[in-house]
């Protein structure tokens, strides 16, 4: 009896996050190839309207876990609620985004369920014997490992932008199943009292099509304003190297790299960043890379599609002016 390819759907501000749309789109293909139904799990409070949005991306069934206890993500409550559902329904695969939530939740689920986990997956291949083979970068992206998880469900976190978002079919319907959430008292270890949202008009770093990042060459916190100017012209996000973060010039949520966010925009502009391997691990999959560095020997130029040898304080304002002309 087919038990399904399940996708954990994340939402932000009442909309399904792009990474989850990517997973639903790829999940549909995997479901078709394996003969399994595609199932979405949506957890939160007041999330019922999202069921139709998920259905439009080809979902057969939606499990709605709608409860005030799930209004804010906390490890214990989500682990408890999802473990129960997975144990009961025994899906074949359970895929999450390689996001802050996915990175936290998936290992807990793996431990509770006693199953293997493939993390930071960038491709999933259907194999007639081995079921799903997960491709993931290792050694900061200089090699790949191909992982077969022999336990069920195949649990995997998938990197943003690994798969395109399919066309939606708004008229498509799915069976919606509402679940009552019961959380074991021992899992209620954390109570979120308040959430302070960062108000920004810029897209999330991992979802942006255009990212402009600054490194130690930015020299001071206030100089990031010139990168923000360029990002805003392009409707993009601002990122940073760890050196800039460690210098206290920008919050660590903006760090790109091995120990920061992994991005894959259409255009990545690296300003005053040398191109250490740990930084490249976070942005090497970008479609086009532009590097601005005054050192012609900087390693970033070896991965750049376009390199500008020059002073970023002269080049970035000029680029901003040129981009303004393009978009006006
Ligand atoms: P630098 O290497 O100091 O380079 C600054 C560059 O700016 C130079 O190339 C210089 O020529 C250029 N420059 C200076 N002034 C100007 C100017 N006016 N105009 C143009 N160019 C100019 N790093 C990350 O970024 N992300 C990570 O996630 C990360 N994780 C790490 C994990 C581990 C375990 C370790 C050990 C390190 C990690 N690092 C990470 C650190 C990494 O090794 C580098 O130290 C870091 O990326 C360097 O940052 P940078 O390129 O900004 O600084």
TrEMBL record:
Positions of the Electron transfer flavoprotein alpha/beta-subunit N-terminal domain: 5-195
Organism superkingdom: Bacteria
UniProtKB keywords: Electron transport, FAD, Flavoprotein, Transport
UniProt keyword Isomerase present: no
Cofactor(s), names only, from the UniProt record: FAD
UniProt cofactor note: Binds 1 FAD per dimer.
One Gene Ontology biological process: fatty acid beta-oxidation using acyl-CoA dehydrogenase
Residues binding FAD, per UniProt: 216, 241-242, 255-259, 272-279, 293
An MF annotation (GO) of this entry: electron transfer activity
Alphabetized Pfam families for the sequence: ETF, ETF_alpha
Family: Belongs to the ETF alpha-subunit/FixB family.
Protein name: Electron transfer flavoprotein alpha/beta-subunit
